[in-house]
Amino acid sequence: MLYSPRMLAGLWAGKTAIWLNRRIGHGGTSFPGGLGRRIAPGLLSALAAQLKQGAMVITGTNGKTTTSKMLAEMIAASKLTLTHNRAGANLVGGITAAFIESASIGGSIGSDLGVIEVDEATIPQLVREVRPRGVVVTNFFRDQLDRFGELDKTVTLVEEALALLPPQSVAILNADDPLVASIGRRYRGRVLYFGIDDRSYGSREMTQSAETRFCRLCGHPLAYDWFFFGQLGHYRCVHCGFERPQPKIRVSAIELKGEEGSAFTVNAPQGNWRVELSTPGFYNIYNALAATAAALRLDLPEPSIRAGLQGYRTNFGRMERLELDDGRRAFLALIKNPTGCDEVLRTLTQNRGPKRLLVIINDNAADGRDISWLWDADFEALAPVLPELRSISTSGLRGEDMALRLHYAGVPADAISYEPDISHAIAAALEMTSPEETLYILPTYTALLESKTALANLGHSPRYWEE
Amino acid sequence: MVQTDLRALRLVHLYPDLLNLYGDRGNIITLLRRCEWRGIPLAVERVSLNDRFAFADADLVFMGGGSDREQTLLFRDFQQHKGPALVEAAEAGLPLLSVCGGYQLLGRYYRTHTGEEMPGLGLFDAWTEAGSTRLIGNVVAEAPFLGEGVGLVGFENHSGRTFLGDRGGIRPLAQVVAGHGNNGKDKGEGAVYKNAIGTYLHGPVLPKNPALADWLLARALERRYGDGSLTPLADHWERTAHDSVARRFASR
Asked: How does DSSP assign A193-252, residue by residue?
């Protein structure tokens, strides 16, 4: 319950704004939260303090939304109630809006747990307002450098935010990312590491998308025995002794099954169990592992954790399969930074057979204005499947830049076509796709929203659009 | 069928593991492809911390930008080992492209917020002062020295403000039409000194500005073989992407 009139005024203003937004069909999710906060700055703190079993916070560059949705599924499978910024609005306004929506008209939050996905730059403020039981840090990669400045600043920001955590709280860190694990080395509170032990995927060689091969603590080169992707792998610093911490929550016996997903074994102090994940992509194993570590910290039982992962359905635009007629297939996969894009390309090249490709690049504020990252992404990896690619097209505000990138990645200039209008480009690509062919649509964030509308207008709604 | 050109070139990529922000490896990809399409063999040598290298063997050098932390890691190595030899070679006409942090390191000094001066290599008669805000956004500029009506487009993201002196005929690489350039004041963007170029343009700069890529290749060929001629390429997507950015942002 909220007793102060100011808090109630903030809450009701926020609730009214949410209702109005719905009425006018506006998708914006952060405005009601911002409004509530302007009236009652302590609103989020007051609401979050009522969570019966506290909150779990998820941050990092890639995998925040997927990890928090997986965790939400596990919590639902435990028959616990939940407040969650499900729509992925992960700045403070959007998070406050999720709590406003979850609260009763009298200002009480009935939920057992909170799951909060947080943008890296927002985490210091969030940790101060919501004193979480744990913070999961997934990984650090360059993303929207035009907004954040340098990656080092982002890592330092998260490190400083963790120092503000209450003593009983736990930092849940990816052991395989040296940028993340370096935070644990200096963190004075409790740390729980997760990581992948199995070396059947990945390589001995570093890929282009690695952010650093230098130790964040002493500046000397790191020695690697194994790379999974980017700078994630098994590493040690010969100079200062910093090395990959031995993770408590681990994954072994990985089996990648192309677009069908993957299977793997989780090894934890609580036991070992086999997981079947229907979401394709090696990186989703990391997301499942991060969600599992958070769930174990929240003392969720193993059957709920398994059920949550098994029941997890692909997140909006994260390698989503569209149902088409005549045996034609289409996948929609968000690309927004080099590492995420490389993983999507890896999944695409693993699936054999005739295919078509449509890449849609926008440079709106939510995408990042700077599209230089297209050149950090490894589109050269398409080379082995070029003979299988029946058509290659681009669209969006930066579709010409994308065409240029593909040309320099080895695609002949006249094999690429460009259509500025996204809905026309999608309609044309679907039209061309014949039975037995797979169409891959790779949009940036705002292009994904436009693609969704265009697909719905064409009568091709994917199975799992929730929001 | 691409004819084999006998004029092989050697490109040195300096500190590729430290200076690798903002897609700058796209500049290497561009130089490689534009040589490959013309049958010119281009070897890329990656030279980093503790590597010894004689710049006399190089035909072309590329240096990108890095984060403050990574620039600190290479600072001493560059000052003591590679920097002086690189400056000597560039003074003798070695073509060089430096972007952002690399450009700043090759100036006379960088003055931090606290007034501390970090010495640079002094190849460019230029100095940089830390600014309180970052200059971020698309840039459209005119670069007449690359040919009549030739422009440059790119994306800048820097807090340092760079000012040019007048030693040795150093001049701005381009005049800003939209965006900030070197310092947001004098409309200058980047620097040209002999065959060395400094710029704040990411994007990366070379793919959408093939005239600049070819200028560097022509200088390298001329210097090594006395013949800087280049077979023209169709440059369809290069021109399309360039013009699209110029149209969209020049009017702002």
From this structure: EEEE---SSSBSSPPTT-S-SB-TTT-PBEEEEEEEETTEEEEEETTT--B----SEEEE
Q: Is residue A74 part of a domain?
A: yes
Domain boundary among A291, A311, A331: A311
Which member of B22, B203, B237 has the closest CB to residue A403? Answer: B237
This complex has an ipTM of: 0.96
Residues paired with A257 in a beta bridge: none
| Per-residue pLDDT at A465 | 42
Residues B237, A374: C-beta atoms closer than 8 Å: no
The single residue listed with the structure tokens 């501390």 is B116
| Rounded-to-integer distance, Cα A406 and Cα B237, Å | 10
Where residue A220 sits, what CATH number does that domain have?
Answer: 3.40.1190.10
Domain interval for residue A337: 318-458
User: Omega into A412 within 30° of 0, i.e. cis?
Assistant: no
Residue ranges of A 113-142 with Cβ closer than 8 A to chain B: 142
Tally of residues, chain B: 252
Asked whether residue A402 falls in the same domain as residue A261, the answer is no
How many pairs of residues across A and B have Cβ atoms under 8 Å apart?
92
Average pLDDT of span A353-375 = 93
For chain B of 252 residues, list the mean pLDDT of each consecutive stretch of 10: 82 91 90 97 93 90 86 86 94 97 95 89 96 93 94 95 95 97 97 98 96 98 96 97 95 62
In order of their start, the domains of chain B are: 9-250 (3.40.50.880)
Mean pLDDT estimate for chain A:
90
A316 compared with A143, residue with greater pLDDT: A143
What does the pLDDT look like over A25-83, one tens digit per residue? 665 578 899 999 999 999 999 999 999 999 999 999 989 999 999 999 999 999 999 99
Which of A311, A343, A369 is the endpoint of a domain?
Answer: A311
Both A265 and A351 in one domain: the answer is no
Q: Show Cβ contacts of residue B156 under 8 Å, excluding neighbours closer than 6 positions.
A: B135, B136, B137, B139, B179, B180, B181, B200, B201, B202
Domain shared by A69 and A137, yes or no: yes
**Candidates A372, A403, A408; nearest CB to B203:** A372
Hey, is the C-beta of A404 within 8 angstroms of any chain B C-beta? yes
Instruction: Clarify whether residues A277 and A325 are in a common domain.
Output: no
Instruction: Please report which confidence band the pLDDT of residue A121 belongs to, taking 50, 70 and 90 as the band edges.
Output: confident
Q: What angle do CA A118, A123, A125 make, to 5 degrees?
A: 125
Place of tokens 């002949």: A412
